[in-house]
Design a protein that fits this description.
With 179 residues, the chain is an all-alpha fold. Helix content is 83%, strand content 0%. The chain contains 10 helices and no strands. Helix 2 runs antiparallel to helix 3, helix 3 packs antiparallel against helix 4 and helix 6 packs antiparallel against helix 7. The protein is elongated, with a radius of gyration of 22 Å. The termini are far apart.
């Protein structure tokens, strides 16, 4: 009996893998209705799969099922905290819903654990800047500079931040260095 259970699990796993590949093919063919039905079937067969949840969340977002998509994305980020692609998808969801605080919190967490920090710091900088948190944007700019050096673009960004923070003397000194 134990062997029968193992065999049926293997068959189910192979079926999910096959259907998952089929969903991707259907997307390429722009057959989204069929792809949606198939990814939902995959979710029934393997509700714990992060990859399936991720792909299904994309469909649900496109269909306007935002709450369900958000729950799926939060689940897969919680269960796969090291997967930057999943975190990026959730951050994009938060950003699209103008929930900058949630996006910032997620990126701060990601910045502390990610292997490739430059891109994460760049996004975090943009979020801080857009949110008007110029002190944190300046500190994040310092981190970015460690990766890219003190380029003209970094200096211009720093100049803008100094102006936003009312640090006019520092802005003038920086402008003198640039000119």
């Amino acid at each position: 009996k134990a062997q029968h259970n193992t065999d049926s699990i293997d068959v189910q796993k192979r079926a999910v893998e096959y259907f998952f590949v089929e969903v991707t093919g259907l997307q390429e063919q722009e057959r989204f209705d069929e792809g949606f039905e198939l990814i939902e079937y995959c979710r029934e067969l393997d509700p714990e799969s992060a990859a399936i949840q991720y792909l299904a969340s994309r469909y649900h977002l496109a269909l306007g099922n935002d709450s369900l998509a958000k729950n799926m994305l939060e689940y897969i980020v919680e269960t796969n905290p090291d997967n930057e692609a999943y975190s990026e998808a959730l951050m994009q969801y938060y950003y699209s819903k103008c929930d900058l605080q949630a996006a910032i919190a997620l990126y701060e967490k990601l910045a502390s654990t990610a292997k490739s920090k430059e891109e994460i710091y760049t996004v975090l900088y943009s979020l801080y800047y857009e949110n008007g948190d110029y002190e944190k944007a300046l500190a994040t700019l310092d981190e970015i500079t460690k990766f890219v050096g003190n380029t003209t673009d970094m200096m211009v960004q720093r100049l803008k931040l100094y102006l936003h923070l009312g640090r006019n003397d520092e802005a003038v000194k920086l402008a003198q260095l640039m000119i």
